[in-house]
Amino acid sequence: MTYQADPKRVKGLIFGHAVGDALGVPVEFVGRGELKSNPVTGMRGHGTYDMPAGAWSDDTSMTLCLLEALTRDRRGDYRGLMERFLRWKNEGAYTPTGVTFDMGGATRRAISRFEYGTDPLLCGGDRETDNGNGALMRIAPLVPYLFVRFGSHLPAGAMEFVHDIAALTHRHPRSLIACGIYVCIAVQLLRGRSPRKSVWLGYRHAREYYQSANESFRKEWKIYDRLRDNDAFAALPEREIRSSGYVVDTLEAALWCLLTTTDYESCVKRAVNLGEDTDTVAAIAGSLAGLTYGFDAIPEDWLKVLLKREELMQAVEAFLGTLVDVSEEEVLLMGMGKEDLVRGILSDPHSWGFIEEWQGRYGVTNYSDYWGKSSLSADDLTERLREDRVSRYDEFQCQVLFTTLLREDHWNNGAWEKRWEKGEPQRVLRRMLAIWGEYVK
Predict the structure, then answer these.
(1) Is the distance from CB of 104 to CB of 28 less than 8 angstroms?
(2) Which of 4, 325, 371, 393 lies most in the core, judged by the most C-beta atoms within 10 Å?
């Protein structure tokens, strides 16, 4: 079964994000007190970055990169998405003025790692200090993409896909959880539920997933405890809402604005006038409000000023065209968690659907660089597949080794069957399950 996404809500998601971003750009880093005396009530020009009115920032640029990747690329082509980020960073692509500005430090470091050869899924920083909002601010296009496949209750495979997209720039569990909570709430809004009901249900679905996940997720989950009771959270006074670039503050501020207003305009005005990271808080709040109230709720006076409005609309329309005719097989495979996917390969090694799904998610694109040579001989690969060596590999080493096995079969037809008879691929797959089993209840 697949689901239908309301085009007006999807347009509201993307344009709500871009308009909120543009409203916040001129006053980024301005304090709340100063904005009390001179609040933002409409589009302004210049300010913090001396940009024209209607200019949006990194939040929308990176969101457009993801939107285009989901429209044009095969799922799991993380290299293609990172190449778009690189063009944005180095060439000013996906910007309204040809100038890249307001790039976060963690995002810059992640893209630079990719530029120098790091595998995409290892580019994001995983330290506690890497928990800025640079992944959360660009995750919005995943909402309709996942909704048409799974509706408003996302399975493990969908959550893992959210994490993989986030991890390209921010790999710490705290950032991954923030993105997961956002998507779980947003798919409820896309279904047409109210903000209160959506936050309540989305938070509980996210909690169900993370509290049954590995220890690092269970440990971090408590940081989001203020969202547990959304009535109490919505009743908090403004002074208790922080609007910094820290991912927890940003998510809380955006949700608080959504829960304490009743229309798009008042939601994003409230978000911008909280001060500090004004563009990102308003972009995320605006995306949620756009989902809730639809594209037509965004003030036309603001849309008229938004730079590259037509190009944005073309990108959204192209994306909407892909949200139909999703195959049942794709939904089945994508919904599988990584453990079930590996068990599927073990139970049916000739089902290339399982194998292609694994390779799309976890195949290491520069696997030959890991070995320090363009290719491994059959004897070299056999040596690395010895039981005593495989038992010491970490998850990424297993991904490299399994990718190498699959590529060997591509160049040497029949190699997979011969190695399967020897039990070598199974050894790597079982090691992956053992690694995950160390952390899973």
Answers:
(1) no
(2) 393
Q: Which of 73, 72, 76, 102 is nearest to 89 (CA)?
A: 102
Measure the N-to-C terminal CA separation of the chain; round to a whole number of Å. 30
Q: What is the pLDDT of residues 318-331, one digit of tens each?
A: 999 999 877 777 78
Position 372 confidence tier, pLDDT thresholds 50, 70, 90: low
pLDDT at 195 over 90: yes
In sequence order, what are the beta bridge partners of 49?
A: none
CA neighbor of 134 nearest in space, from 99, 93, 188, 89 = 89
Q: What pLDDT does residue 212 have?
A: 87
- The mean pLDDT of the chain is 92
- 3-state DSSP call for residue 177? helix
Dihedral angle, C-alpha 13, 294, 155, 365, nearest 10 °: -20
Sequence-separated (6 or more) residues with CB below 8 Å from residue 56: 18, 21, 22, 25, 96, 279, 283, 306, 307
Q: What DSSP letter does each residue of 19-74 carry, written as one string?
A: HHHHHHGGGTT--HHHHHHS---S---BGGGTBPTT---HHHHHHHHHHHHHHHSP
How far is 297 from 40, CA to CA, in rounded Å?
Answer: 18
164 neighbors 183 (Cβ within 8 angstroms): no
Euclidean distance between CA atoms 92 and 104, whole angstroms = 15
Report the alpha-carbon distance of residue 333 to residue 327 in Å, rounded: 10
The fold adopted by the segment(s) 7-327 is ADP-ribosylglycohydrolase fold (1.10.4080)
Burial of residue 108 (number of CB atoms within 10 Å: 0-12, 13-18, 19+): middle
